## 1
Amino acid sequence: MVNITEKIKEIEDEMKRTQKYHLGLLKGKLARLRAQLLEPVGGAGSGGGAGFDVSKSGDARVALVGFPSVGKSTFLSKITKTKSEAAAYSFTTLTAIPGVLEYGGAEIQILDLPGIIEGASEGKGRGRQVISAAKTSDLILMVLDATKKAEQRALLEAELDAVGIRLNKEPPNIYLKAKKAGGMKITFQTPPKYLDEKMIYNVLRDYKMLNCEVLVRDEYATIDDFIDVIMKDHRKYIRCLYVYNKIDSVSLEFLDQLAREPYTAVMSCELDLGVQGVVDRIWKELRLMRLYTKRKGEEPDFSEALIVRRDSTIEDACDQIHRTLKDTFKYAMVWGASARHVPQRVGLGHAVADEDVISIVAK
Ligand SMILES: Nc1nc2c(ncn2[C@@H]2O[C@H](COP(=O)(O)OP(=O)(O)OP(=O)(O)O)[C@@H](O)[C@H]2O)c(=O)[nH]1
Ligand SMILES: [K+]
Ligand SMILES: [Mg+2]
């Protein structure tokens, strides 16, 4: 383990004094070593890649990631029925503590995690375990202390980036296919701004991918994007909401500035300011919808929601209820934001909206 860490350090040092083509190559090597570092290794004290032993439950999982004492546990205790110990000293939380956030009939698992520090991705503290847990989540809630320096955010992002977590990013629009023969075929759909054939060629050769087809569809793609495509089995694209806590202790001007940053929310758990707003944002960022079902002649059941992904249709809702339901489907009645008039009679292709009430009529 030490060896890989040393190799990573060597490459990072070399990168600081290197030119474009060679830089791409070094980045490729670095990505490979970092993936090795995360491979589970047997034996005591190795750290490995395993997370905490908490099974997933509910409709989605949100991981609270942040430096020590930013207020992660305080937040969990506020929004769920679970009490997670909070205190003024670092590393109060030593393991993963799950809680359930009930949100209009949806159940969201919130995972309170130990604080992480710089070097977490290389195994400092419980960093590796925390990051593994974060990797299993549908949304990372990065909890930040509004009274601390702005660098805290970039430091945490770098730790997550080093283990292949990409925040608020789509997978690069680059096609790569390994072939048995025929050499390398590299094509650009539009003239690239940050890439050229030689850079890609160098990295592919280093990965011993001598026969393959590459099509770069995005003119802004970088060599980092290309490496992400090669390493796609080790990459995870996760949405992230940055939440600045302790706003009770900063100036209004600064607060205003923080609140304007993208993917950002602000709160004070202590004064109970903005907490509900953060909960609403969590729901929004998860990109899910709640549908309530109604039987003919009865009131809809709002205590339990059917959870579907954003952009779902009546067909997706049927599949969620029962896999053979659509075979007997005749039509559906819809009340809510997606209905042109209430109720509207619709077919399987109708796009539903959050909080719609639906009634399925079978043949
Ligand atoms: N001023 C202020 N203090 C807060 C706020 N929220 C939490 N705290 C305090 O911050 C300290 C740390 O809170 P915790 O909830 O233990 O923080 P944590 O992020 O879970 O910490 P670790 O588990 O050690 O990583 C406690 O003393 C809290 O009372 C807030 O909104 N404002
Ligand atoms: K603490
Ligand atoms: Mg804690």
Note: Residues 110 and 175 are 35 Å apart (CA to CA).
## 2
Amino acid sequence: MPPRRRPTQQPAPSSAEANVPEEGDLDVAAASAVPPPQAPVESSSPEPGPPAEAEEASDDFTPLATERLILRPYKPEDAAELHRLINDWMVTRNLAAVPFPYRRELADEWIRSAAESLRQGTAYHLAVTGTEGEREIIVGGVGLRVDKARKTASLGYWVGQRFWRHGVASEAAARLARWALANLDLVRLEATAAHDNAGSVAVLRRIGFRQVGEGREKFLSLNAEQRVLRFQATREDLFGGPEPEVEPESCGPAPAGSSPLLLVAACALIDADGRVLLARRPEGKRMAGLWEFPGGKLNPGETPEAALIRELREELGIDVAAACLAPFAFASHRYERFHLLMPLFLCRRWKGRPQPREGQALAWVRPEKLSEYPMPEADLPLVPLLRDFL
Ligand SMILES: Nc1nc2c([nH]c(=O)n2[C@@H]2O[C@H](COP(=O)(O)OP(=O)(O)OP(=O)(O)O)[C@@H](O)[C@H]2O)c(=O)[nH]1
């Protein structure tokens, strides 16, 4: 079959990906790296600054680490190794967007286009690397194509045949999927797998995707359509809903059959420009990726004001006086495992400059833009109140 040359014909994990049974262990090691906050992320300065704008383009993607792997942007010098791994019928036959045979020049072209789309924030195609002895080796690839209009992204992955049966695809795909929902402006992830690709289906299920339907897709390597299974994952699928450990001390008594009451104090910090500070729940927490008002649970015996003063110092490194906290509204919302009662205070004066002390991204948001930021359900009624007031 002659290779075809189109920018979309890539070793790209665009969909319907690797047939990778996932057991055992791989002799690869991880270096330490942390994900950068991504859009919509703004200045954390309380001084007047640029208005809130979604900003997703990045020239500088910080690699993502897993226990054994590093997910990093491709480099031009990866082309030969990439070509050697991907120009393999056993790998390409499961990849919808990769032709076979795969010509060497396509690897160069792919690396160039992956760098450009990463810079623009339209796709995140990353090399999955491990180490063999002291040497870094490429073991596969993982990627996301972003559909900004639909706030979705499609996940794909492939693994070089030599590295099958070591759990590489699950480890890499889970990391990128969780990073994406925690850091990008997305409501869900999508993925497809060829109906007979049991390995890839198992990967998607293992990392938290749900099957939502079936369809057909053209596979370049087969030069034919294939039946595919369609999968999706939302934040709730990957991180769980709002179900914190509810300590009896912070709750009122819960009669049999009812949910415990959780008291949380929250604060809308307002800067001199009338912008409100939102904090994004970081990867690793339930509801990661949602934006909320800084604050937190009340400790036993604490007043809401005292809890807020403590939380604002811990989370943002600022000092607030109780006299500067003005009661504004409250949220009363039933989550599955508890009922949230959350007084919301307004504060226009504080000491220090809010800094993200707990890995959260911060955004100073104009009131009319608040509704563009995905927030926990309990906060939704507060948004119009705040917008009208400010
Ligand atoms: N701070 C804050 N919490 C909110 C908001 N809306 C909302 O539903 N919550 C929920 O209220 C609870 C706040 O608890 P928290 O901040 O002390 O705890 P957490 O889940 O972040 O975990 P942690 O115990 O590790 O700090 C969480 O379940 C959180 O999802 C909000 O606007 N601000």
Note: The pocket of 8-OXO-guanosine-5'-triphosphate is lined by residues 242, 244, 264, 266, 285-287, 292-293, 295-297, 340, 342, 376, 378-379 (CB under 6 Å).
